[in-house]
Amino acid sequence: MVHLEVLAHLRNSNRYSDTIQALSEYLGQTKSSISQTVGFLESEGYLKRTRDEKDKRVFHLTPSPKGRRLVQEFESRFFGDVDVDTLSVKSLERTLREIQKRNGLRSFGLCFSCRHNLNPSGQKFVCGLTGESLSANDTKLRCREHEERV
Ligand code: SF4
């Protein structure tokens, strides 16, 4: 399961959240354990790592087409025909968010709901925390720096 969780997280995450450090925080596992999992997935061709252009110490992890297919197959097999009760999901989300807050954990929320997500011109998004531009697609991804709007 952890292999699938790693691939699913990477598929849904932005450039601040696709690292071993972020995976370790998201899954609550040690960096060495995550490194082993990532090493296995990389050697089997499920993901690739690329060096950050600005900070050469940082590597970004991206699921390969084979990795994406694996996650998609798993999700459609297990969740494909589940009738999701929207109200229950919303209530579960609220409860989990409260638990995260009380325990000082990162929310890993979607970028568009972050208080740092700025859209000054009404056309282009900017991350108020890093000052970097965000594409419309970036705003749909998960972020380790996410902070809920209040
Ligand atoms: S606006 Fe928030 S969620 Fe989006 S990239 Fe910046 S810190 Fe992350």
Keywords, separated by commas or semicolons:
Arc Repressor Mutant, subunit A; 5 strands; 43% helix; globular; two-stranded antiparallel ribbon; 2 domains; 11% strand; binds iron/sulfur cluster; alpha+beta; 150 residues; 5 helices
Question: What would you say this structure looks like, in words?
Answer:
This protein is of the alpha+beta class and 150 residues long. The protein folds into two domains: 2-79, Winged helix-like DNA-binding domain superfamily/Winged helix DNA-binding domain (Arc Repressor Mutant, subunit A), CATH 1.10.10.10; 86-140, no CATH class. It is built from five helices and five strands, in the order H-H-H-E-E-H-H-E-E-E. It has helices at residues 2-12, 20-27, 31-43, 65-79, 86-102; strands at 47-51, 59-63, 117-118, 125-127, 133-134. Strands 3-4-5 form a three-stranded antiparallel β-sheet, with no helix packed on it. Strands 1-2 form a two-stranded antiparallel ribbon. A hairpin with a 7-residue loop joins strand 1 (47-51) and strand 2. The protein is globular. The mean pLDDT is 91. The chain binds iron/sulfur cluster.
